[in-house]
Amino acid sequence: MSSGLLFALTGVILFALGVAGVVLITPLLRRILAFNLMGSGAFLVLVGLAQRNGMSDPVPQAMVLTGIVVAVAATALALALARKLHALTGGLELPADDDD
Amino acid sequence: MIDPVVWLILLPLAWATLAFVLGPGRGAWAALAGLLAQLGLAVTLAAKVGAGGTAVTHQVGGWGAPLGIDLAIDGLSAAMLLLTQIVALPLAVYAHAYFKRDDPARRYFWPIFGFLIAGLDALFVSADLFNLYVTLELVGLAAVALVAMGGAAQQIAAALRYLFATLVGSGAYLFGVALLYGATGTVSIATLTPLVTMDAPRLVWIAAGLMLVGLMVKTALFPFHFWLPPAHGGAPAPVSALLSALVVKASFYLILRLWLGPLQSLLPTFAWAMALLGAAAILWGSWQAIRAVRLKTLIAYSTVAQLGYLFLIFPLLSGGLALQTAVMQVFAHGLAKAGMFLAAGVLIHATGQDRVAGLAGAAGHLPVTLFAFGLSGMTLMGLPPSSGFLAKWLLIDAALAQDAYAIVAVVLAGGLLAAVYVFRVLRQAFLQAPKTAMLHRVPRSLEWTAFLLAAASVLLGLRGVELMQLVGAVT
């Protein structure tokens, strides 16, 4: 098994764990962490799969750099919202849906 | 020479940044001037694409793919750019009058609004799957920030729910792009299209499925619509209009792009599954709209239902005018729903509450607004001569040509259900008001911008041929 494929498979596992976390976990901080795990999984796949004959491909690395910037921005926004929610309700969980 | 493609992205970025630098609540005039210029650019671009019959392309900074970024505008992109600017300009006029000086939602409205428009414009001109991912995230993050702007706990919770849904959606899309790049070594739509065929490796199939599901979550297709009603129903009226009219259409546009382009040999396998979910969305969304207590929840569920029509189109895409039908429905719903949310904003402002039951007496005081609501409702029901009628007519026509009678039945039932929830609101508004009811005064510009958008959604039905020619000019 090449190292590239190993990276990619690890990425798949991380992504699946991350998605499960975002969907299933209630505490907000853990959900935000799970989202980051998800993103890292996708980045690993992007870089890992693109390795051919041990040579790394620069294009996906540039993409991952961009992706990391996007993930940081999303995390910052999520943390800011979570902080605001904590200030307003005192909790770090989403209140129950009031779907009238 | 001014290249409209680049300026459609740079202008909103410029006025958004200017508004941010000017400080909280300022920058409305910069936004209005910028949007007016953008509308001119979008019209120029549409005329160029429509007349030239070829896609307009642009290499950002003179660097071509794969290292640089290519932009491409065909008939579909030009039409979406046009819709974005047409809806955004009246919305800006409305928002300028809507937010009071001390409204917390006003503080950062203009910068985030600008970033959202820039993201949308960039999305519609992107020609590679990764750039589309970045613009999709830009649009998603700006939309979440707009939902949270009001600052109440309920709005923050709705925003967080929306944020997690949109992040999972775009995460699945990115994962699909990563697999696709691993299998083919490119993300350019033009290069991928001939590469992916029916006998593609399983990896590509998984990638296609992940991208499709991710985008379905972002488009709020039933059963992934759970995040939409609290987010669209809880935000301030101009924001709700923006989200329902444009933001959910961005991810639908991307599905359409993939369907017609790189994944055209794989995705039709799922066509009937999509149509089934679309039909479920129409029935479920309409039912929830009929039951809704709050006015804006009603309109938000109506969005869930109207999005369903867009997915009925996929089994018919092999036929002649299906793409034009999709764009007509996107325009019809975009204009009508923007008009309807704006009218609802006026009603809520005037009556001081947001329940359908509390609208009694509104018709006598706000005839223009009620007329706007009715015109939007006409388009949603699909009455002639509105653009909604044209879209549903084309849809039924295409379905009959392929003997898909189930689709015809769903479209007709959806129109009737829409009539039920629209008339529920109108009936309530025409009731005699109790003597104690006090209506607040509403600025004229609020009423007339809502009316403008609603009237546009009806009048487009008379000029639909031009739009269809533009979409059909270059594919």
Which labels suit this protein?
heterodimer; A: 100 residues; mainly alpha; Helix Hairpins; 76% helix; 0% strand; elongated; B: 475 residues; two-stranded antiparallel ribbon; 19 helices; 2 strands; globular
Summarize the structure.
Chain A has 100 residues and is an all-alpha fold. Chain A has helices at 3-24, 28-49, 58-89.
Task: Record the SSE blueprint.
The complex is a heterodimer of chains A (100) and B (475).
Chain A: H1 3-24, H2 28-49, H3 58-89
Helix pairs in contact in A: 1-2, 2-3
Chain B: H1 4-22, H2 28-52, E1 56-59, E2 70-73, H3 75-98, H4 109-125, H5 129-148, H6 153-184, H7 189-195, H8 202-219, H9 228-234, H10 237-260, H11 271-291, H12 295-312, H13 322-351, H14 362-365, H15 367-381, H16 387-401, H17 405-430, H18 444-459, H19 464-473
Antiparallel strand pairs in B: 1-2
Task: Tell me about this structure.
The complex is a heterodimer of chains A (about 100) and B (about 475). Chain A is mainly α. Chain A has a single domain (about 5-90), classed as Helix Hairpins (Orthogonal Bundle), CATH 1.10.287. Helix content of chain A is about 75%, strand content about 0%. In chain A, helix 2 packs antiparallel against helix 3 (about 60-90). The longest helix of chain A is centred in the C-terminal third of the chain and has 32 residues, at about 60-90. The termini of chain A are far apart. The model of chain A has no long low-confidence stretch (mean pLDDT about 90). With about 475 residues, chain B is mainly α. Chain B has a domain at about 270-475. Chain B is built from 19 helices and two strands. Chain B has helices at about 5-20, 30-50, 75-100, 110-125, 130-150, 155-185, 190-195, 200-220, 230-235, 235-260, 270-290, 295-310, 320-350, 360-365, 365-380, 385-400, 405-430, 445-460, 465-475; strands spanning about 55-60, 70-75. Chain B has a two-stranded antiparallel sheet with strand order 1-2. In chain B, helix 11 runs antiparallel to helix 12 and helix 12 (about 295-310) runs antiparallel to helix 13. The longest helix of chain B is centred in the middle third of the chain and has 32 residues, at about 155-185. Chain B is globular. Chain B starts with a helix and ends with a helix. The model of chain B has no long low-confidence stretch (mean pLDDT about 90). The chains are: A mainly alpha (about 100), B mainly alpha (about 475). The interface between A and B is large, with 44 and 42 residues.
